[in-house]
Amino acid sequence: MKFGKSICVLNVGGTRYAFTREVIRDFPLRRVSRLHACATEKEVLELCDDYDRDRNEFFFDRHAQAFVFIMLYVRSGKLRFVPGVCELSFYTEMLYWGLESAHLDSCCQKRLDDRMSDIGLDTLSEGDIRVPGEEPQSPGDSVQEAALTGRAKWLEKMRKAFEEPNSSLAAQLLASISVIFVIVSMIMLCASTLPDWDTAKRNTVEEHRIVEAVCIGWFTAECIVRFLVAKDKWDFLRRPLNIIDVIAITPYYVTIAMARAGMPGAGLGVAGVILRVLRMMRVFWLMKLARHFLGLQTLGLTLRRCYREMVMLMVFVFVAMAIYSALAQLLEHGLDLGTQNHDYASIPAAAWWVIISMTTVGYGDVYPVTIGGRVLGGMCVVSGIVLLALPITFIYHSFVQCYHELKLRSARYARNLSAEMLQ
Q1: Average pLDDT rounded to a whole number, residues 307-334
Q2: Is the dihedral of CA 148, 149, 152, 156 positive or negative?
Q3: Which residue has the higher pLDDT, 146 or 10?
Q4: How many CB atoms are closer than 10 A to CB 215?
Q5: Which of 45, 46, 130, 180 lies 20 to 30 Å from 39, alpha-carbon distance?
Q6: What is the DSSP string of 247-303?
Q7: How confident is the model at residue 132 (pLDDT cuts 50, 70, 90)?
Q8: Do the beta carbons of residue 101 and residue 91 sit within 8 Å?
Q9: Where are the beta strands (DSSP E) in 15-109?
Q10: What is the chain's alpha carbon radius of gyration, rounded to the nearest angstrom?
Q11: Residue 144's closest CA among 124, 165, 159?
Q12: Among 165, 192, 382, which residue's Cα sits nearest to residue 294?
């Protein structure tokens, strides 16, 4: 800025804010920071609505209350919607000042996604409603990252690369490598249960050890790096997927330690059984794929948000199972009418027949033989269909909502990635 006074005044909707030139130069809002590079009034008027040279005052005909909340974001790093203001209107203000939806807090991001989904803007890009002449601001220009320097900034990039697979090209590359190792590990796990596996393993024992060691080494390194760069170490340790990672990795090192101590796992009795069970926990590495596939993310988010409906469904099933299993045991075995059905000798045994009947599976291994039992079986099937259908509507709507939300979030990451490739 080669004109005006050293103090710059921003007049936004009648509210005045005074800053020095140095503050304007490093201002987190892109539209404001670009004022410092303007050499003429013509360039200034491309960014603001009017300019007063005498007072060095820049006029912006924008929503004053919305800018107050944006200034709170500049100071505290938290951006939330203005109460009583339309989400899309505030979003337009954000885009004008150079912010993206990714800068919103997660709760407000969900509100924006829901609002856009309600009015049919699921596939609308942020660039379609961007204020003319405004360049998009990449996530790397956010207030949080602007405040980071040196080692902290490097750790933040590392954290995003491992925790947010769609945040950059490097993150996508790491995610692809992780998926490949998960698939290879699952193939090895499935093949190890084949009858001819022991023979094949003895013939190529060194190759199998190398493949297993490489897979475990990658998962171990990934887990350690993610722990080191995590913002909250305790929160990292409490996450279910991270706990599964540790449980899946540990048996390999326990096996190596026991082998070096001269204690083969097969001859340890109960300890050997526990070790084999823990080794089989590697199948839960498939849950890592939820970070990379929209469908699995939608399923997990739906289950988390619909846990009340799921509990209600389980209560319905258990209550009906208790009633029908007691009646079935009584009609088929307890009355002692000369045609005792030993498959229903106890209520727990009858409960198996009830659950496969209510879910309309009907394996045919257990079935009633008395007239009363068959009538009860018909009632069990019909009531099972009705009870299972009751909470499905709520779960379905939640699934659709979660899918649209994650779809918008994925599109947002894709646009950020495209911007990074063009830079």
Answers
A1: 89
A2: positive
A3: 10
A4: 23
A5: 130
A6: HHHHHHHHHHHHHHTT--GGGSTHHHHHHHHHHHGGGGGGGGGGGT-HHHHHHHHHH
A7: very low
A8: yes
A9: 15-20, 50-52, 57-60
A10: 31
A11: 159
A12: 165
